[in-house]
């Protein structure tokens, strides 16, 4: 996970360390540290789904409190379905004994202090933060509860090691649990939900620093939210799949829960193939819906005794209906069934805070209309050359990538796929090749002093395999930093790279070869990378985690080619420009064309703008032509700054990447949109270079544009997009991602 570098330290150890405030805490001396082992003393469950408990007395500390600052579970998911730790004044089952859990505590209320399942790793709390036990606190015993999947003939000694500190901690940790008490998932249901919501009535502020989800086999995602008392401010606390290690994942930073705020949790299930209903219950064959919030509050604060809330069945109250209408539509999305390689970083990057108006459901064809905006743009007398890319920022500004007076046509590359001697002899393009337009379409000044952040491949050297690229046509970047390249004109493939440029996998068509993979779009909620297979006039999508081709569709409306694709998560629509000379609104699941719009001569690139309320289409003829289209029904949402709140995690990541570049304009503009990492790096490659040895089709950077272009696809960072078939497939001539 990545936080703003000025406020957070990034800790990387072979265990889960939650990010800590940059201010340093005094280190514990050896005398202040100890480990308390809370162990099941040889439990022998006699039947499946047994819940057994034991307890351990908190060590004496001269009458002073101790603080739990870390947890290490010593069990295995083959034995324990889950392990819970509770704090008690007095336990139901005495130390050294094993018994039915019953009421957990015999006196005083029970407080959850830890939960573990599915081989979650060790957990360390943020510095200066700990659970208060012993001394004058209400926790004098720690109760361990183990849910055993099956009966056992051998005694079990599942345990949790508690890392204790005797040093008083400035912040007290606690857990707030949201859970469904009842509910059912019907057979065959997809994206079925169980919802829990309540109003927080505690007297002290809670600041979440971690969250955990728990459910059973049908669950595909659980997401939690904090809502302001007027329901106008909606913040996502976190989301994860219960099929992953059920650890405490880092929560979104900067969230405070105060008296009067609402808390909401949604559990999403897939009952495809099931023949009977599944109900909320205690066995592993039933279902559950639990969302844990691990929080901190200043030491000594009065929290009260309310540490959980629950619900069951549909809540038809007016208050509940109002609340759930504010929850984003993407709360229904599935998460990957297999945990990403770094699920902790993935969870942190995937959980962006969202405020205000939620994402709408897929727009109906009748309500979803696209219309050209007249008298746009107004380039102020500047003539555009061949436009090979276009991108949009959150405030309505548009970035155009064009070739100035340079025209790429037949013969741009020789038979060995290298840039022709004739083009090399022309040297650099002298005009500004990256232009910025304000919201009205007027041209603004754009600084050229920006540098690429990452380069892959060798300038003017076509390559294949893991070595590089050959005339790539496009690239997009996921919110996790993975880069997808349409390696289009020579290698006919899509390549996936890691954030550091390392090769991860390549994608080929499930029924043959891609013929000029020309443009890419990501449907990140479904983990899909989609390509415009230009000369086969179709779109194909792969799951980038499994490599499987999951969607492939064509339509007579595509004509004989598809040049560009884009995806709008706000409208849940895919858009395409085709060889038929039209723009198309496409169902991203079925491929059905919902609407045709526009009339173009040589359409080439496109972008979603203004939070889904506008589309941009670039034509590559000379002079270049740029169109803007309004999308009806989404303006109110797209004009809200709330739409861009979901991209803050990527912004913070970008800031970390460039913090040493000393390019103040680059850092400032990065706050606008993750895509601008690409646009600004491309600015260096505008070919107004002092080095006369560099040429317009030379070196290619993952954060440079190219004879291809730049587009914004809701936080993804496309980089290059290549030319039309009239230009003899004149893509960048070397094994990187190209200059202009």
Can you walk me through this structure?
The structure is a single chain. Among the domains are: 30-169, Jelly Rolls (Sandwich); 174-352, Sandwich (Jelly Rolls), CATH 2.60.120.230. It is built from 7 helices and 46 strands. The longest helix has 11 residues, at 648-658. The two termini are 34 Å apart. Cu(2+) binds at residues 81-82, 147, 214, 216, 288. Residues 698-740 are annotated as: Disordered. GO terms for molecular function: copper ion binding; peptidylamidoglycolate lyase activity; peptidylglycine monooxygenase activity. Residues 41-150 form the Copper type II ascorbate-dependent monooxygenase N-terminal domain.
Annotation keywords:
mainly beta, disordered N terminus, disordered C terminus, 740 residues, elongated, Jelly Rolls
Which class do the helix and strand fractions yield?
mainly beta
Strand content range: 25-35%
CATH class of the domain at 174-352: Mainly Beta
DSSP helix count? Answer: 7
In whole angstroms, the N-to-C terminal distance is 34 Å
Biggest sheet, open or closed, and with what strands and sense?
11 strands, mixed
Q: Give the C-alpha Rg.
A: 28 Å
Shape call: elongated
**CATH fold type of the domain at 174-352:** Jelly Rolls
Total strands? 46
Mean pLDDT comes to: 75
CATH architecture of the domain at 174-352: Sandwich
Helical content band: under 10%
Region (Disordered): 698-740
NHL repeats: 465-500
Protein name: Peptidylglycine monooxygenase
GO cellular component, one term: membrane
